[in-house]
Design brief:
- The protein is about 40% helix and about 20% strand.
- The strands form two sheets. The protein has a seven-stranded parallel beta barrel with strand order 1-2-3-4-5-6-9, surrounded by six helices.
- Strand 2, helix 2 and strand 3 form a beta-alpha-beta unit.
- Helix 5 packs across helix 6 and helix 7 runs parallel beside helix 8.
- The radius of gyration is 17 Å and the shape is globular.
- About 45% of the residues are buried.
């Protein structure tokens, strides 16, 4: 049994620093690097790519909506063609930095609102999956476990990774509780770790409605910008390994 541990990185912008990328890379196995639309800038992209390569973390593009002010978390009414264009553009930008540093781009994980929209919207999911496939059919498409995005990627012939979240609560249909809800986040390390172990071992997660939702845990997302993110990442990795679960990239 093995699982990937991923984190969204490179989300600083200009003079604004976000997260603890350098230290969190000691514990994660995949790095999703922002590509300049929702966060990130060319220098941050280059620096984050170099750090990820130094730690042998698998590098993925983390394309988002063009919404720096809203950090890519606000739904925008975009057409499928726009989604295709912006995802392909961002993959290409990060790929250039990865190639320049002697690495290889391994996966793509949409960010924020784009991720959640594509989890339900089949047309957006198809556009994103096609952009990934056209960029490189060997890339792995990360998406919410059991989502339309994952299923669409599989139909197109892409390798996919069903993603689960360490610090988010779930609805009965397997979707994440929206961030605007008071119970969207799990703040207890113990509760988060128990949720992770159950998702990995049993393929189930207790929803906010009280019943179990079915999930598949190929990769676990942890957020690197919280006040205790570094200690939490360390605790998750050590717990998984103590339970006999290998932590490695897909």
């Amino acid at each position: 049994m093995f699982v990937d541990l991923n984190c969204d990185l490179g989300e600083s912008f200009g003079a604004y620093q976000k997260g603890n990328d350098k230290e969190i890379l000691h514990y994660v196995t995949s790095a999703n690097i922002a590509c300049g639309f929702h966060a990130g800038d060319p220098s941050t992209m280059r620096e984050t790519v170099k750090r990820a390569l130094e730690k042998n973390a698998a590098i993925g593009a983390h394309p988002g909506l063009p919404d720096l002010i809203g950090f890519g978390r606000r739904n925008l009414d975009i057409a499928p063609q726009e989604a295709y264009d912006m995802v392909l553009y961002q993959i290409g930008a990060l790929h250039a930095f990865v190639q320049a540093e002697g690495g290889r781009l391994k996966h793509v994980k949409p960010h924020g609102a784009l991720y959640n929209m594509a989890a339900r919207n089949s047309e957006l999911a198809a556009a994103i999956a096609e952009a990934v496939y056209k960029a490189d059919p060997n890339l792995i498409l990360f998406g919410l476990s059991g989502s339309t995005l994952v299923k669409t990627g599989e139909k197109l012939g892409l390798h996919t990774a069903n993603e689960v979240f360490a610090d988010r609560t779930y609805q009965l249909d397997g979707t994440l509780t929206p961030r605007k809800h008071a119970n969207a986040f799990i703040t207890s390390d113990k509760q988060s770790i128990n949720q992770i172990l159950r998702m990995v071992k049993e393929g189930r997660v207790c929803s906010v409605q009280g019943d179990d939702a079915i999930v598949k845990a190929d990769t676990i997302c942890i957020h690197g910008d919280g006040p205790h993110a570094l200690e939490f990442a360390k605790k998750i990795r050590s717990t998984l390994e103590a339970e006999g679960i290998e932590v490695r990239a897909r």
